[in-house]
Amino acid sequence: MLQQASSKDSDAAPSIAVIGTPMIDFLVEGLDELPERGTVAQVNTFERQLGGCALNAAVVASRLGAKVTLFTWLPTADSESRVARAERDEVIAYANNAGVSVQVVGSITAIPSSIVVIGSDKNRSFITFKTPVDSSDAVDLKPHLEVLKTFDCVFFSGVGPNERFTGDSLSSILKSLSTSSHADATGSVRDVTFPHPLIALDIVAISGWDKAKWNARIGRMMHYVHAFFPNDDELAQFEPTGVTRHRTIANTVNGIASVLESHPRMRIVGVKRSSDGCVVGCTSLPSLWIGGRSKDSECFQAPTILRGGNTLRDQTGAGDSWCGGFLAHWLRDKDPRLAALAANAAASVCVKHLGATKYLTSVEMLEAIEISKDMVAQIEDVYRAGMSRSPSDGPGEGIPLAP
Length: 403
Fold this sequence. Notes:
- This protein is of the alpha/beta class.
- The protein is built from ten helices and 14 strands.
- The longest helix is centred in the N-terminal third of the chain and has 16 residues, at 82-97.
């Protein structure tokens, strides 16, 4: 049986349960358009790597010092398919080599896969096979609920429009975890500033999804979530008339404010903005704010050490690296500013390599994080549009909304 995980000592490594299914990525580099039927195209690179949101985030968080267990769906050890059995063993070995424990909660016929086509301009296109992960169901997590409650954080990674997974069964799981995070063993209410376990969510907004349908489902899930990590395009999916292209910091901040206001349990929203770093909004964490302000919620923009495209090779896994880096540092240090810089640094190292985590080392990420700490003075407070204050309002106030 899986051992319970907890980090009672503030200096101990935080424990994170990451929930999701791995993938196999076939990375094609240097292809700007598909060849005509019956012809052959030559590419610079064609490489197979293990990936998937959950595995990527788990590996990064582990390499940055967290104690991580991946709760996942894999082919059975006695599968009739030799390939499926080999892929199962490969995923477990890869995770274990990165310091990640694996708890199999349910079975799938095969590990889903996709082809990632990286053009010369570094933009990507995807060919994704209809995935057997659709056979996974959140109900498979019920036997593991008591163990999940012992982790500092339970992170649902890469949740997308899966009919069975994002239904009422997942909302029920989240409700149970969220209820436990607000009471101790005697039933007394906990300090909800930092719930235990903290429930975090990362989604995958698939183009063409039924926005009304999936937003309603994910909206029900978010009622029980404490931390939400969308990219800017994904955040726009939750705005009734949201801008989806050429979004400004003001668009992002308004979206964050809307999520925080709509979901009372939400403590933090971190929005990934590619080479523009990230924008993070928090609530109920007044002691952590620059200038010691104590508003109900605040937002700040954190820069990234990567600027321009000179060192950019492939963005695959960058968002997952961001999530793993943020959680590993936020849970340990309780400082969202340093966590945001660490997350940006992890993502900036990821995009220098092909694929997600195969070439992503602890040493390189930690070096980038040390460099990023010098950028803490560059963190800018940004407010919801129209809420900037004048300098006479005191220290830290009056910082203009970033353009």
